[in-house]
Structure formats: structure tokens, C-alpha cells
Design a protein that fits this description.
0% strand; 2 domains; 190 residues; 76% helix; globular
Length: 190
């Protein structure tokens, strides 16, 4: 098993070089879009972490109690869902068969619990805003050769990163999308 390594902080020119390295994803090919998002999440993970921390700190400074409550609820639901996904056969099967729906349900449960404790708007701004910004960047950013090489090393197990561990816990590995795409292509040829 490979040692967990923190990905390097990518330069601003690599992270946001201009419109020539961005393009709308093909919404008709969900497997390709998912592959782009997962690849960018793995490649730019340190940049995304810095972005999330900056937004989190700005919103947290404006309303610290609600931000702490929101972070505690989300962390508890995430840890609980990962534990249940590994230790409960029914949930593990559901997570493997419906990874995107599983992540969506984790988000819905987090939102519901936050509404019980109040401070939903602070939660949405402090935690969801960075996630939305990250998803938009990961969806629009085209991959380069370095990105593809880094991701192949991660999927082959030669390298392990924190984002790779999180994506694996949520069932969002790149090879899952490649298998889905291969399956769909074989069915279309029949």
C-alpha cells in the first residue's frame, strides 16, 4: 500500500490560466464529465483545500457559532455514513451500486440536521459555497497531460492522497466511471 502524500499546491497559472483551458462539460456523456471532475479533484486538491479554507474563514469570522455547529454536523454525518457504508451490508451494497445518490443522501441528511439546529444559511455559505466553487472549477477545467499522469498513478495504487481516500470512501473512484463508460459503450455496440 502506498504512503499517503499531500499533493503539491499547483501554480496560479496552472489552476486558472484563462478561458483556453476551460470548457463546458458534455452533459450527454455523464461518465466523461464525472471522470473530469474526479481527475481535477485529485490533481488540484491542495488548491481546492486552500480555497475552501479561505471561504470557510471569511464566513466563520462573520458567524462563528453557527459555522462550528454546521461543521460538527457535517463531519458527524460524513463519518457516520462512511462507517455505515463499511460495516452495514445493505448500505455498502447501496453505496457501491449508487455512489452519486449515496453522496446526495449524505448531503440531504446534513441539511436536515442543520435545519434542526438552525443556522442553515451560515452552513450553506461556509460549507456549501466552497463545495460549489470547487465543483464548478472541476467541471469546467480541462485536464492536461500532467493531470492525467498523476491520476493514473493514484488509480494504479502507486500513490495515495487525502482526496483519493475521501473519494474512495464515497465510492467515487475514477475506475468506477471508466467501467460504467465501457459497459455503456459495449451495450451500444450490441
Amino acid at each position: 500500500m502506498a504512503k499517503v502524500e499531500i499533493a503539491p499546491l499547483r501554480s496560479w497559472d496552472d489552476f486558472y490560466p484563462g478561458s483556453e483551458r476551460f470548457a463546458r462539460p458534455d452533459t450527454r456523456d455523464l461518465a466523461k464529465w464525472n471522470n473530469r471532475v474526479v481527475s481535477n479533484l485529485l490533481y488540484y486538491q491542495t488548491n481546492y483545500l486552500v480555497l475552501a479554507i479561505i471561504v470557510f474563514l471569511v464566513v466563520g469570522f462573520l458567524n462563528p457559532v453557527s459555522m462550528f455547529t454546521g461543521a460538527a454536523v457535517v463531519a458527524s454525518v460524513f463519518i457516520g455514513s462512511v462507517w455505515a457504508g463499511e460495516n452495514k451490508a445493505v448500505i455498502k451494497t447501496f453505496k457501491n451500486e449508487n455512489p452519486a445518490l449515496f453522496v446526495f443522501l449524505v448531503m440531504v441528511v446534513s441539511y436536515f440536521l442543520m435545519s434542526l439546529f438552525g443556522g442553515v444559511m451560515v452552513f450553506l455559505l461556509g460549507i456549501k459555497l466552497p463545495l460549489i466553487l470547487i465543483f464548478v472549477h472541476a467541471s469546467l477545467r480541462l485536464r492536461n497531460m500532467k493531470n492525467k499522469l498523476e491520476n493514473k498513478m493514484e488509480s494504479a495504487g502507486l500513490k495515495k492522497s487525502p482526496m483519493g481516500i475521501i473519494l474512495e470512501a464515497l465510492g467515487q473512484q475514477e475506475e468506477n466511471f471508466n467501467q460504467i463508460q465501457d459497459f455503456l459503450e459495449s451495450k451500444l455496440k450490441e
